[in-house]
Amino acid sequence: MTSFTPSAQQSAAIRLTREWFETRTHAQQVLRLFGYAGSGKSTVLKFVLDELGLSPHRSDREGGCMPGVVTATFTGKAALVLSRKGTPARTIHSLIYSVSEATEEEIEAATRKVRAAEIEIRTLSGFDRTAAEAGIEAMRQALSAMKKPRFALNPESDAADARLIVLDEVSMVGEDMARDLMSFGKPILVLGDPGQLPPIKGAGAFTNVAPDIMLTEIHRQAAESAIIRLATMAREGQPIGFGSYDAHVAKMHKGDITPEQALCGGQLICGMNATRLQLNNGMRAAAGLGGTTIPSGAGEKIICLKNQNDLGLINGMFLTLEDIVDEGSLYFSAVVTDEDGRRVEPTDHKGRAGRLRIYKGHFEDHIAFDRDRNDRDWKDKKHLTEATYGWAITAHKAQGSQWENVIVWDDGLGRSELDRRRWLYTAITRAERGLVLLA
Questions:
Q1: Is the pLDDT of residue 63 over 60?
Q2: pLDDT, the chain, mean
Q3: Where are the beta strands (DSSP E) in 307-391?
Q4: What is the DSSP string of 163-189?
């Protein structure tokens, strides 16, 4: 398979994982194989699958069922990264769920009920009015939920036939999704990093308990990396001093770098959405692109916010825009190229290639944030591509992705010391070669 020789700890992990799959999955459905950045989780997985003779799963839809390994991740971008490295992967959502949406008629009917209740409440007073107001608020929340996709478990999922499900980048998987995955009754090998960020709401279902196997040794090549050293310091809560750590890694004061310099420094990662909006505006101004409510085209960094499988668009994928045309109050159109240089070409009902129509709202939020925008535009934007400026993104959005060079803008995110360590560790480990930490 490779000339690489696993360490003693990695060899033990390979042996234990293989023994679990061959003898214990009936008693233990989930095996947690955890390790910090640089400990070799992916290396262990490759050795295990090779020794077990397991290949990627092929379903009937792909020309004959060959039960094997299904690899899934929480984010589409993480799945894309794995696929580019030679491991076929998909999102957990697309693996086990089918998507349904309320019809326009259902939503319009619910809207009429809310309006009727709002009219009726005008005749009430005292306790009756208070109770009615609470009921109306519940109706409004239910109406808002109807405007978002609903996910139902898909009994015909490839997860039902696979011999093994491998989950990577699992720190953001919550309890409900974990329970749905386990309902298929298949062995699940979880690759996790307890140092990374948990889900925005709640704790990670697969990372909130002790792992079955924990890789703690940083292998030699990774240990020589200044990025791994800083990531380890962040994870352990050690102070990271200002200065250079190698020719490509440094910690600097925010005032030491200008927006113009940041333009050449790689992907900018921050903690909070408010910071993201401010940084995007600053970076665009430095690039001479500010002052407009939609992208200007040349050099703009645009990131997808929603999967569109029919177009090959993935949440977290960066896009290049050309020939932008403002089409009115709701969207603009453009000639679009994805990260791989592929032209994104929607087709009309006659099969003719057309321009991509992109929703304006997320770009306009950089000028004036509108929390009611989704409820107002939900119907009209259903068939539009959703994207936003990608000069700066949050560490939550960056999970599952890596870039050659990264700038981490430390805006102090973290409700607790543990939260802060996880955020900083996650942000730092998005860098492959160059890293500038700004504090």
A1: no
A2: 89
A3: 318-326, 331-337, 343-344, 356-359, 387-389
A4: SEEEEES-TT--HHHHHHHHTT---EE
Which residues partner with 322 through β-bridges? 335
CB 289 within 8 A of CB 299: yes
Residue 190 has φ and ψ, to the nearest 5°, of: -105, 125
Length of the chain: 439
Percent of the chain with pLDDT over 90: 55
Element (H, E) at 72: strand 69-73
Torsions phi, psi for 121 (to 5 deg): -65, -20
How many helices (H) and strands (E) are present in the chain, helices listed first? 15, 20
**Identity of the amino acid at 294:** I
Q: For residue 210, what are the contacts with CB-CB under 8 A and spacing of at least 6?
A: 32
Rounded to 10 degrees, what is the CA torsion of 110, 115, 120, 121?
100
Question: Three-state SS across 74-108?
Answer: CCHHHHHHHHHCCCCCEEHHHHHEEEECCCHHHHH
Give the tokens for residue 360. 């304006």
pLDDT(348) > 70: no
Amino acid at 201: K
- Give CA separation, 402 vs 78, 84, 141, 365, 419, in Å: 9, 12, 37, 26, 21
For residue range 352-378, what is the model confidence (pLDDT) as tens digits? 668 899 999 999 999 999 988 988 998
C-alpha R_g of the chain: 24
Task: Quote the CA–CA distance of 23 and 27 in Å, as a whole number.
Answer: 9
How far apart, in whole angstroms, are the C-alpha atoms of residue 300 and residue 315?
17
Instruction: Quick: pLDDT tens for 99-116.
Output: 777 888 888 898 899 999
Distances, alpha carbon 352 to alpha carbons 154, 298, 359, 428, in Å? 33, 26, 21, 44
Residue 93 CA to residue 174 CA, distance in Å, equals: 12
Tokens of 130: 């208070």
Q: Is 412 exposed, middle or buried (0-12, 13-18, 19+ CB in 10 A)?
A: exposed
And the tokens for 218?
């940083």
In whole angstroms, give the CA distance from residue 337 to residue 341: 6
Structure tokens, 387: 């994207």
What is the reported pLDDT for 2? Answer: 52
* pLDDT average, residue stretch 23-38: 95
Residues in a beta bridge with 214: 34
